[in-house]
TrEMBL record:
Pfam families (alphabetical): ketoacyl-synt, Ketoacyl-synt_C
Name of the protein in question: Ketosynthase family 3 (KS3) domain-containing protein
Any single Gene Ontology cellular-component annotation: cytosol
Origin superkingdom: Bacteria
Tagged with keyword Transferase: yes
Length: 440
């Protein structure tokens, strides 16, 4: 284990407000809620399915698709009357990109869980000054599919037929803006777009907004829904996607025979709150976000930098004023790529060394939800702390030799009571690194 990096800012944590998680929401290929997603992980399920749509020839026809069209449950969440729900369910695909729809679904669940929404529809946020309520919601790709659709319409039918919502649907900041508009967050709307680290970076940013006094509550997380022939071809041509045609076995984090990730869609949202604000309103507290760090490799678009990952892990632990021996569990990014999983395993081993916490990775269950991944994985890390159950890595049949130094949970879930602190790491294309530290 290497000596932790000494960051002077960690000495100032006593002067900063503590940040807690009071609400969680998720819509994933495993289910339309946190409970369904966690239950499916506990049951060992996979959200990967075969793509049955017509289209150009592709080397990969697997993806992690939502189990239910998001327009139907979203209309039920947002509109009071059955006739209005039916009408809006038909209109929502034209008004909102799919990434915006899943962001709203997850945000609605998270705010409901935090007991911050009125019971009557349309729901409104209560007990928070709108000027103290912010949004930090990342997306790796945003409305890329809406851009493709608008492009096709332009060439096939002319510019006058391009829909008036084309621009707002394709905006990378669209999911964050949709949440801000729907729930009246006026303290700022922030939309990190840092590839696969977008959701985790949004949580880092949300914590910063609270600690610098700019907000009391932040709706934070990530959303992406950009599965298309273009996105699949783009990832396939750089050999990032698994070529396995078996949906049950394609996503294999840390496995010796892994050959890439499976692309997915979804959203994860957490309500971050200043601890004093949460206590004053009697809110339940799921977890504390005690540390966070982001950094950049500034080196390569695709290849990870183990040294920068080590320093980011160490800095997050230092920011939490903990030591490696205080970390009992790691929720790894581990997408299933050869280089990525090996680099991350080396980084965890070097940063934590003989502390040897349990390690898991959930993308064998969920697929890789790009900008939503870090937020959903933070939620799963919190459920791991709460329940003392560490999910097994799905499809891990033979551990890669480069990863044997880690205590990776395989074959069966492990009971681990009394988890004090957990790390949740995210690493994205463009050399983006984001690490969160969560405690009970």
């Amino acid at each position: 284990m290497e000596a932790p990096v000494n960051h002077s800012r960690s000495s100032r944590t006593a002067d900063r407000p503590r940040v807690v998680v009071t609400g969680m929401g998720a819509t994933t290929p495993l289910g339309g809620s946190v409970a369904q997603t966690w239950g499916a992980i506990r049951s060992g399920e996979s959200g990967v399915t075969k793509l049955e749509t017509d289209g150009p020839p592709l080397p990969v026809r697997l993806a992690g698709l939502l189990r239910e069209d998001p327009t139907v449950p979203l209309a039920r969440c947002l509109y009071p009357e059955p006739h209005e729900q039916a009408r809006m369910a038909r209109r929502l695909p034209a008004l909102l990109d799919r990434s915006q729809q899943v962001a709203l679904l997850a945000a609605h669940e998270a705010l409901t869980d935090a007991d911050l929404l009125t019971s009557s529809l349309p729901s409104r946020v209560t007990e928070v000054d709108p000027e103290r309520l912010a949004v930090a919601l990342g997306s790796g790709v945003g409305g890329a599919n809406s851009l493709i659709q608008a492009h096709d319409t332009l060439h096939e039918r002319g510019w006058t037929r391009v829909p008036p919502w084309a621009v707002t649907r394709l905006m990378p900041g669209g999911p964050a803006a949709a949440v801000s508009i729907e729930f009246g967050a006026q303290a700022g709307v922030h939309a990190p777009s840092s590839a696969c680290a977008s959701g985790a970076e949004a949580l880092w940013l949300g914590r910063m907004l609270i600690q610098t006094g700019r907000a009391d509550v932040v709706i934070a997380g990530g959303a992406d829904a950009s599965i298309s022939p273009v996105s699949i071809a783009g990832f396939a041509v750089i050999r990032s996607l698994s070529r396995c045609d078996d949906p049950e076995r394609a996503a294999r984090p840390f496995d010796r025979d892994r050959d890439g990730f499976v692309m997915g869609e979804g959203a994860g949202v957490l309500v971050l709150e200043r601890q004093e604000h949460a206590q004053a309103r009697g809110a339940k507290i799921h977890a504390h976000l005690v540390g966070a760090e982001v950094s950049a490799d500034a080196n390569d678009w695709k290849l990870p930098d183990t040294e920068r990952q080590v320093r980011t892990l160490q800095a997050a632990i230092a920011d939490a004023e903990l030591t490696p021996y205080d970390i009992d569990h790691v929720s790894a990014h581990a997408t299933g790529t050869l280089a990525g999983d090996a680099a991350e395993a080396r980084a965890i081993s070097r940063a934590l060394g003989p502390a040897c916490p349990t390690v898991t990775a959930i993308k064998g269950h969920t697929s890789h939800m790009i900008g939503a991944a870090g937020a959903v994985e933070a939620i799963v890390a919190i459920r791991t702390i709460q329940t003392g159950v560490v999910p097994a890595v799905r499809n891990l049949e033979q551990l890669d030799a480069d990863i044997e130094d880690l205590d990776v949970v395989r074959s069966a879930h492990r009971e681990q009571r009394g988890i004090r602190a957990a790390l949740s790491s995210s690493f994205g294309f463009g050399g983006v690194n984001a690490v969160l530290v969560l405690t009970a």
